[in-house]
Structure formats: structure tokens, C-alpha cells
Amino acid sequence: MDFNVSAHDHQLMDQVDxxxxxxxxxxxxxRQSFDEHDNICEDLLQDLRAEVKAMGLFSPQMPVARGxxxxxxxxxxxxxxxxxxxxxxxxCFNCAAPDDGNMLVLSKVATPxxxxxxxxxxxxxxVRSAFVMTEPHPGGGSDPSMIQTRAERRGDRWMVHGHKWFxxxxxxxxxxxxxxxxxxxxxxxxxxxxxHKDDPGWSIIRRIPIMGPEEHGGHCxxxxxxxxxxxxxxxxxxxxxxxxxxxxxxxxxxxxxMRWLGLAQRCLEVAHAYVNxxxxxxxxxxxxxxxxxxxxxxxxAIDTGRLLTMRAAWRLQQGKKARPDISMAKIQVxxxxxxxxxxxxxLCGARGYSQDTPLxxxxxxxxxxxxxxxxxxxxxxxxxxxxxxNGREFFAWGSGHD
Length: 402
Description:
Oligomer: single chain
CATH topology of the largest domain: Butyryl-CoA Dehydrogenase, subunit A, domain 3
Radius of gyration: 21 Å
CATH superfamily of the largest domain: Butyryl-CoA Dehydrogenase, subunit A, domain 3
Strand content: 5-15%
Number of helices: 12
Number of strands: 10
Strand order of the largest sheet: 1-4-5-8
Shape: globular
């Protein structure tokens, strides 16, 4: 792969850097910028989104024909980490989960008329969305084949009954992608549907309290009690729900990594600034070997994560599935984010533990990284299967393995 960055991408990166530095980082210093769930308050967000739209960088991952910048996976990797140097960044650019993953999958699998109805409003920032898959026991989580929520066909409509939970963004979403059971096959027993928040027959039971700061709309528990979905709102063919899920989660896992790398770099920046000025026992912290070792460990872990993430992005851009590559990046970057936050807090001492820096916010947020979109153990199994299938060829240079 070629590590050279085009002049056009450099220009976009500079624009993102300028907006993050000049507009977003200063806003993080005021508690008035935050809502009650530790995210950016809605009125401020809408103002900032208008500024991003004026720059031509809103929903840049979407096709130019739909108002985006046409960024592929490599371009996304370059920009997303820069956006998420601010904890407010991705949502201002409309590159935050879950909308980011939903837009990417709808742009790939939805029909043109479905894209007009379900995708375009998300691209424009007029609505938010949610991906409705995860269920409480005995339903599906990391194993979608265990899904219990059922959609039964009745003429040209589908009737949905079931129970979902930890549905990110559901509290403010208008457009939903639902994965439901329509058959008994392990690989062809699921189907995907789109529905609107105002459709009757479903409800939000509660917004589940979590440890960390929340995305807008939280993480909700949903009940389906006779939701009717017209067949025209079915996404892909009957029985292809697992395929849609795999398409969505592949790139979504990787865009998580891109964003988390930005947060990890921010942790290192905060720690760097502190150890450069703080003295103890007559010496600057930056001159202590123990501090240098900790900073070096984190810097190396971040760059390792960037290389794995970029390799996976490059392979996706070549039309490969890149499943083991994505899993390796996911494990490395999730661990790195937690390491970066923990190390930065340790080096900054009481100041790092306070809300005077974003470190405690990032620390609480970081713990989810090893769980969301597949726990680390699941991804280790993906890597293991690829190695067992390929043997020494697993390590071959070139096109690699899928």
C-alpha cells in the first residue's frame, strides 16, 4: 500500500484540524457546552453543524451525488482520527456512530427509492438513526444467529414482535434499521427492515444507564408488539439480514477505530503538555525516564493501531472483506484507547482525574471499546480462524487474507 497522502486529502485534513482547534477544543472547556448526558448540547451542535456544512465537510463519507465528499475507507481513516481529537468532533461532521454505519450500509444496499426516503435525511442531518439488532438473553448479541425478534409475513406487510436492548441513539432516532428473524436457517434466517419512529406497534421501555458519556439518544431497551412494516421497506432480499449486518459492522468497526485513534492521540497531547511544564523534586516530569517510557509505550501503541487501521481501510478500498485485518485493528485500538486514557490520567495526577481536562470523559468512554461491535474475544476467534485456514500464508505480503 502507498502511504503518500494526496494534496486534496491534505487540504481536507487541514480544514478539519483548523475547525477542531479553533472551534471545538475551546468549547470543551465549558460545562455549558454539555448536555445532561455528557455530550454536546443540541443547540450548540446545530450551530456547529451549520458551520461544517458551509465548509463542505458534512457527511464527507457519502457519495458526491448525495451531497458528501465521496471519501473511501482510506480517506475516512485520514479524517476521522483528526475529527475525534475533540470529543465533540465526529457528531459535528455527521461521522459519529450509529449514523455513520447506517449511512454507509444504506448507501451500499438500499435501492435508489429507499435511499431517497431513508438515507438522504440522515446525510442532510435532518434526522438521526439507530441500528436495532442486539437482544437480551436468550437473544442475539455478538452472535446474530441467536436473534429471537420475529417478523412474520402477512401479505405485503410484516408483523414484528420481540425485545431489543442497548440500541444506540434510539432515544432521538427517526429512522431505524431492524434485524429480525424470518426463517430458521443459521445464515439465511434473518431479514433487515427500515421503519420510522412514528410507526405504531413498538416502544422504548427505558434509556439504560451506562458508565460512560452517551451518544445522543443513549442506549435504549425496545419492545415490539405488532409493528407493521410494508414489504417495500425491506432492505435487501428476505434472508439476507445477516449479510447486511456483516456489511455494516465491517466498516463500522473500522470507523470506530479511526475515531478512537483520535481520542488516544488527544490523551497523549494532554499528558505531553502537562509533563512539559510540571516539576517534581526539582526536575520536569518529561525528563524522568519512567515518564518517557510511559509516553513512548502509548505513542508506539497508537501508531501500531494506525497502521493496522490503515491496512484494513486500504484492503476494503481494494474490494476485499478484510475481516481478520479489521479484527486486529479493533482489538489493538480498543486496548490502546484505554491504555492512553489511563496513562495520561496517571501522568497528570489529580488534574487528570478532574474535569479540568477531557481525560476522565475519555477514560469512562474508553471501556466500551472492547465490547461494542463484537467483544475482543470474538475478534480473537476471527483472527484464529483465518490463521488456521491459511497457515503460513496468513503472514504473506500482498493481497492477504479474507
